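Re-run with default settings, no changes from the original entry. Doing this only to confirm the output is reproducible before filing.
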Amino acid sequence: MIVKFHNLQDQIESYYEDYIDGKITLEEREKLISEAKQEKYMESVMKDFHPSYFSSQIEKFNEVKSYLYNECADGRITENEREDLIVHFMKEYVLRKN
């Protein structure tokens, strides 16, 4: 079952409750919390980016990469954050098999 959370705090609290109730292990809880935080962070960085609908996966990746370099140049994200996000989006746009 997929649950849509209103905010990150509710999502994290839900994972703690699932752990307390024995529905997930400690490792699963920590992994889910880490993934939720990473997803929320990516949403905040990418909120103003909208790739072209008709672009190929490679073109979308190149658009994302360009956007992230501009965000870094403008001081909104660090070089490490930029590189982490580029790797994430490479997996999503380039390496993902449809």
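The chain is about 70% helix and 0% strand. The helical segments are 8-20, 26-46, 57-73, 79-95.
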